Amino acid sequence: MEVVTLRYFLVAAIGALLLAGCSTTNLPVGERAYDIIPAPSQQNRAADYKIGPLDILKVTVFQEEDLSFDEIPVDASGNVLFPLIGQVTVTGRTSIELASDIAARLGDRYLVDPQVSIIVSQSASQKVTVEGAVERPGVYPIEGQTTLLQAMALAEGPTETARLNEVIVFRTKEDGVYAAQFNLKDIRKGIQPNPEILGRDIVVVGDSFAKALFRDLLQLSPALASVFVQISRN
């Protein structure tokens, strides 16, 4: 009776494994996923990245060398000191928003129609959360432009039971939280672009419950392995 029960349990688990391959998250995939979480580009980064404490900014004021700097550090309170206009709060703002603010302040008193460009040359404040079927789930700091594959590498890659076609990225924007699903296999092969990961993103790698169950059972007792092989032959 015990052997029959075990055989029945393993057959049911095999069925669950097959059914799991047909599951779907109903999230945007393929091209629609990249509409939400695009591949790296300077334009996307400038539009979405929020400046934080200890970041390094490059500020250029067109035709004003005395007001242009390759490196302006953001202090721990999220402020910078800028000539003529003094202290400016930058935390939580994009480079485009900050450039517009500085241009407006300079234009009020000192310059006529100033053109200001700001680039985050070094990011020290941003972190990404990687959870699910990865070797080391956790929160990791990211610097500069970071892709999904790089975020996965921070967590030492997917586990052997990971569902590589169900890698979900959550991103918080001003109007809410968005999510998109990516296929890590296709990204590794170059079939799909490698999406950019921003600070505060959450990456969740799907796990195959049936595969994990088999792994745990076979580790529990080597005898189960022979039973599984026998069932697969019948």
Helical fraction equals: 25-40%
Low-confidence stretches: 1-24, 224-234
Question: What average pLDDT do the residues reach?
Answer: 80
Please identify, by name, the CATH architecture of the largest domain. Answer: Roll
Q: Measure the end-to-end span.
A: 19 Å
Q: What sort of overall outline do the alpha carbons produce when their principal axes are compared?
A: elongated
Structure annotation, total helices: 8
Q: What is the H level of CATH, i.e. the homologous superfamily of the largest domain?
A: Outer membrane lipoprotein wza domain like
The helix/strand series, from N terminus to C terminus, equals HHHEEEEHEEEEHEEHEEHH
Oligomeric state, counting identical vs distinct chains: single chain
Structural class, from secondary structure content? alpha+beta
**Count of the domains:** 2
Give the class-level CATH name of the largest domain.
Answer: Alpha Beta
Number of distinct beta strands? 12
Give a structural overview.
With 234 residues, this protein is of the alpha+beta class. It folds into 2 domains: 2-41 and 125-227, Outer membrane lipoprotein wza domain like (Outer membrane lipoprotein wza fold like); 50-122, 2-Layer Sandwich (wza like fold), CATH 3.30.1950.10. It has 8 helices and 12 strands. Strands 7-6-12-9-10 form a 5-stranded mixed sheet. Residues 1-24 and 224-234 have low confidence and may be disordered.
